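Q: We require from you a single protein entry containing the residue sequence and its fold in token form, and nothing else.
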Amino acid sequence: EIMTAAEYLMKHPEVKHGRIRIGFTPDEEIGKGVDFFDVKHFGATFAYTVDGGFEGELEYENFNAASARIEVQGCNIHPGYAKDKMINALQVVNELNNLLPPCQRPEHTEGYEGFYHLISIRGEVENASSEYIIRDHSRVKFEEKKRYLQAATALLTGKYGEGVIKLTLKDQYYNMREMVEPYPEVIDKAFQAMEKAGVTPIVRPIRGGTDGARLSYMGLPCPNLFTGGMNFHGKYEYCSLNTMQKAMQTILNLIELWGK
């Protein structure tokens, strides 16, 4: 969509526009897409990521995001003589997961509801680990989720002793809303560009992340536009060619609007 819009402009020099900057980022899905992005060198005042889904999606709210890794050092004893000696690392990992509220799992949440998402468990009796992603649109609830996980870890440390459980928390990105809302013209022009392309704008929070979130906190306000892709990260993922065409037209309309 971006490249087709650029191709159109190259073929139609009569289209008047201002200075345009285009960037592509790798590793967006693991939150490292803009680790080495030079905003100053990029030289733009505002930008848009083209990373949304359903036709008309316009997003400038996203999850606050953190990753969590739990490492458990167990004590493997012959099961016939294990009473009051064995610490089964797999059981401890499972016990910690059971302390987290089941209603705050992705499969039970929607809209502005956040979650703890268990993405992996590895190990054996002696050593085990689990990994989570933590998400919430509310910064207050996001911090509460992290504190709750720390409290659960502390509870099990009290039960099994120091050195058995290690928790590593790492913030990944934050909700871009507070960085974009002070610049309403960025949103207004996206509305106009979509409507001019025959698209009905749909403002909704991203139940995920986008490199635009980190870019916004790096000084480049950057809401997110639709692409036509659906069912991301699954076997039923697809993209609508008709919607891709409208996304490309929306990009061209934005270029025209900002050029006036």
Summary: The chain is about 35% helix and 20% strand.
